[in-house]
Every structure is written in C-alpha cells, then in structure tokens.
Amino acid sequence: MSNEVQLSFSAVYRVNPGAQGEMSEFVAEYVDAVRAAGPSTLALSAGLNDSGSRLAISALHTDTNAMEEHLVTVAPFIERSFQLAEVETITVIGNPGARLRAALDANASTGAEVTVVEYTKGFLGAGATAR
Question: Which of 71, 113, 120, 129 falls between 20 and 30 A from 92, CA-CA?
Fold first, then answer.
C-alpha cells in the first residue's frame, strides 16, 4: 500500500435542537460500523463541540473506490443523520466517485458549502496502519 492518502473527506454538521442527546450514541455507532467495515478507511475522527450543537467528521480513504465503499457502509447512518443534523460544510481532497459526487451535489442543493479540490500530494504518517 502506498504511504499516500488519496481521498480525504471532512464535514461539519449543525445538530438539530433537541437532538444533542442522541448525537453521542449516533457517533459511537457510526465509528464502530466504519471500523468493522474494513481497512479501506485509513482513519476516522468524529467529535462534538462543547454545546453539542456542531458535529465534525473527518475521514481518510485509500482511494476513490474506498470512499465509494464507505458510502455504502454508512448509508443507514446518512439516512438517520437527516433527523439529527444538517450539513454546513463538506471538503473533499481527491477525486469523488459517482456516489460521492451525487451526495455532494445533493448537499450543495440544500445550501451546504461544498469544496472539492484535486489531490496533489500527501502522506500517511510513519507507523500508521490501515486500521
């Protein structure tokens, strides 16, 4: 495996009023599902701000296909997230596949700020593993 990360995804969500109590459990279930799906997601970080009003998620994938597989894995969570939060911003570094492109377009149509930039160069730190 290359020591370069070829697709990076990050998003910030505005948590719906009244949904803060559910969000910690939702995040834990989401992270566990992604971890169980296999090594194509190199890293995943998710966190809530102090007030619970914002959720941030960041993921690193080996390539475009890995991100497409990730979207299949997390489809049930995406559907559930619509009840809990609204996407504010998404940033992708790399080449979105068809599923990700459709998701980005759908989010942009609802007012989310979507930024996609070409992957130029990067690395996966020494000692890092695919899990």
Answer: 129
Q: Does some domain include residue 131?
A: no
Which tokens is 89 given? 């911003």
Q: pLDDT digits over 1-44, tens only? A: 455 568 999 999 999 999 998 999 999 999 999 999 878 888 99
* Inter-CA distances, 17 with 8, 20, 22, 43, 54, Å: 29, 7, 11, 29, 11
Q: Is 44:35 a contact under the CB 8 Å cutoff?
A: yes
Note if the pTM is more than 0.70: yes
Task: Write out pLDDT tens, residues 98-122.
Answer: 999 999 999 999 999 999 999 888 8
Give the structural domain span for 113. Answer: 7-117
CATH number at 70 reads 3.30.70.100
What's the structural domain count of the chain?
1
Is residue 41 situated within a structural domain?
Answer: yes
Residues 15-54 as b or e (16 or more Cβ within 10 Å = b)? bbeebbebbeebbeebeeebeeeeebbbbbebebeeeebb
Asked if residue 43 belongs to a domain, the reply is: yes
